[in-house]
Amino acid sequence: MFAQVVLPLSRFQTFTYKVPAQLSGSLRPGSFVNVPFRNRAATGVVAEIAPSTDYKGALKAISAVRDDLAPLPAELWTTLEWISDYYMTPLGLVLKVALPLGFANPAPGRKQVRAKITAAGSTALDGWNRRAPAPKSLLSILAARQTPCPVTELVRLVPSARTALRHLSGLGLVELSEEPLPTDPLGPVSTPQTATVILTAEQSVALEALRRGRKADRFAPFLLRGVTSSGKTEVYFQAARETLAAGKSVLVLVPEIALTPQVAARFRGAFGEAVALWHSHLSRAEKAWTWRQLQQGRIRVVVGARSAVFAPLENLGLIIVDEEQEASYKQEDRAPRYHARDVALVRGREAGSVVVLASATPAVETYFNGLTDRYRTLQLTQRYGGAAYPKVRLIDLRLERQRTDNYQLILTQPLIDGIAQRLERKEQVILLQNRRGFAPVCACNDCDFVAECPNCSVPLTYHKRANELRCHYCGYRAPGLDSCPDCGSPYIFVLGVGTQQVEEVVQGLFPAARTRRMDADTTRSRHAHRQILEQFEAGEFDILIGTQMIAKGLDFERVTLVGVVNADTGLAFPDFRAGERTFQLVYQVCGRAGRRKDRPGEAIIQTNHPEDMAIKAAARLDAHRFYNQVLAERRELAYPPFTRQMRLLLQGADRDEVWKRAQELRRRLIPTLPGISLLGPASAPFERLRGRWRFHLLLRSDREHDPGGSRLRWLIRDRIPQQWLEGSLKGVRILLDMDPVSLL
Length: 744
Ligand SMILES: [Zn+2]
Ligand SMILES: [Zn+2]
Description:
Strand content: 15-25%
Bound molecules: zinc ion
Structural class: alpha/beta
Radius of gyration: 29 Å
Number of domains: 6
CATH architecture of the largest domain: 3-Layer(aba) Sandwich
Strand order of the largest sheet: 11-12-10-13-14-9-15
CATH superfamily of the largest domain: P-loop containing nucleotide triphosphate hydrolases
Number of strands: 31
CATH class of the largest domain: Alpha Beta
Number of helices: 22
Helix content: 25-40%
C-alpha cells in the first residue's frame, strides 16, 4: 500500500510513502502521520491511499501514526480538498490555515488551578460537624457550582483557602485540576441557564422548517431573513438546542467575536463549557488547548469568527452563519482567499447538515440564491415584542449648507435638535460616521498639493489630537503640516469628516453630554470593545460615536435616536459593491433605534445624494426594492451573481516589471474559452500600496455556461505555469482571488 501525504508547504504537491503492513488498517484520508522528510521527521496528513504508485524513485515508509491526534472528520477533509481546488491553493497551505498551529507542539500557556467538589465531598458537607470554618465554607461554595471554580476566585472569598483546599484534596473531598487559562472575551463561564422563551408565530414556523431539515438528515441550506430586532438569534438558538439534544454538534460563525458579544454570550450562558470560542485573539496555547478539546470530543458547540469554519467537530448537525453579508468572512490577505460562508455551505453539504445563513440585509448573491430556490428562504417580518420600526428622515446636506451658508456644516439642525431632545429625556444616541481620524484629506489652498502616503496611492488622514498625518493602509505617520511642502503657502486645509471631528463638534454643542468614540483607534486593546459597549448599556455615557463597528447586532434599549453623519462615505469607492455596502450599513444602523415598544425610535440620515437608490431604499427600509433594482443592474453589467469573477493581482516593487508580467498574463490567457471574458490589465484602484505597485486582470465566467467555475480554473491551470502562482518571479507576485469581495 502507498499513501499520498500532504506536508504544510506552499507547493501543489503531495509526497508518496510506503505504508508499513502493521499500519495499513489504521490509516484513512485525514489521518496524521510522522514521516521522514529531508533527513528530519515531519508531521503530515494522509490525502490518499492506493494499492500501487507510478512513482519510480526510492520510497521511504511512514514512521508512525500520531495516535495523540484523531484523524480529521471525513467531511472536513473533503471540504479542505474542495478549498484547495476551488481557490487554487496548495493543499499544504490550506492545511496551515485549517490547523492554525501547523503541526508544531504548542508553547505552554498560563495555567489555572480549579477546584471541584467530589461526591464524597457532598456527602461530607451534609453531615459536617467539625469546627473548621474554612473547609466548610469552601465545600458549600463548591457545592453551589456546577463547574470547577478557579482557586484564585476562592482565595478572595475564604481566608487561607489554599491550605484548606490542599487538605480537602488530600481527603478526597475536593478534586483539583490544572488547565490552561482559557481566554474569554466574555469573562468567566456562567452557570447554564434554561430560560423558556415564547416564540412568535413567524419564529415557530422558521424553527419548524429547520427541525424538518435536521430530521431529513441531509444537506439543507436556509436563508433566514429577518428585519432588525425580529429575533433571528432566538430561532437559530432554539435550533441549536434541539440539534445538541439529538446528539449532534453545532458550529456558529459570527463576523467578529468582539463585535457580536451578545450572540457568543447567549451560547455560553446556555451551554456552559460545551461551548468553545474561537477567534484571532486566542494565544497559541489557548488555540492548542481548544483544538485538543475539540479533537477529544469534549466540545460540541463552537462559536467563532472566520477560521472557526475549520473546527474539527464530529457529527455536525447545524451550521449557522450570522450576518452572512459581512466582508470579514472573506480571507483577503493571504491564500487560500476563501469565503467562510461559502466554505460553510460546502462543509454542510459534505456533512449532510442544516446550514442557516442569517441576515437582515443578505449579500446580493445570497438573496439571489434564495430567490432561485437554491436556499429555502425563511422570513421574519415583525419586530420582536411589538416594537415599531424607527421613523427615518433623510436630510439633504447640500440644501442645508446652502440654507445656512455654512459649507463646513457637519451636523444639521434637525439632527442637533434630535440629540438635544434625547439628552433632555435621558435617552441615548448613536452617531455613525464611517471614517476614523479627524479629516481624510489634507490639501493646499494655493496649489494642487494633497498630502499622500509615500508608500501607497491614497491621501493621508489627519489626526488632530496627535497632530499627525497617518496612512490607514500601511501605518505611515508624519507630523501635521504648517505650510505647503510644494509652494510654501501657509493655507493648508482639511477636507472631509472623521469620527474625531464629529466628537469634537458634539462636545462643542453639548458640553454637558457624556460622549465616547468607538473606532479602530479607540479599540486597540483586547477588551476595549466590550468595555465601551457595557458602559453604554449601563448608561454611563449618552452619545456613542463610531465607525461601522457600531452598526452590528447590538441591542440597547435606551437608544432612541440614530444619526448617520454622512451616508455617502462608501459610495465613492470604485467597486461595484459600493451601493450594496452603503445600503447594508444604513439599514442596519437604523435598526439600532427604538428596540422597545414604549420607546419609538428615530433615524436621521444626512446625505449629499438623497436621490441615490441605495440610500433611498435603506431610508425606506425597503429591501425588496433595493435587491430587485441591484439584480437588474448586475445582470445588465454581467456582475456576480450572474458571472463568477477571478481576480489576478500582480504586485511588486518595480513598476515596469509588474506591468510587463501583467501584459504577459494577458497574452497567455487570450483567446479565452466561450463564456469567459478577460478585462485588463489595468492599475488597481490603489495603484501603490505599502510600497508595491499593483496591476490586475479580471476573468469573468458566465454562470450559465460554467456553473461551478471549473472551466475558469482549467483555463488558468492550462495557460499559466504553476510555479508563477506559488512564489514570486523577478520580484513580482501573482495573487489569485476567486470571488473577490473587494477590487481595490
Ligand atoms: Zn501649495
Ligand atoms: Zn501608506
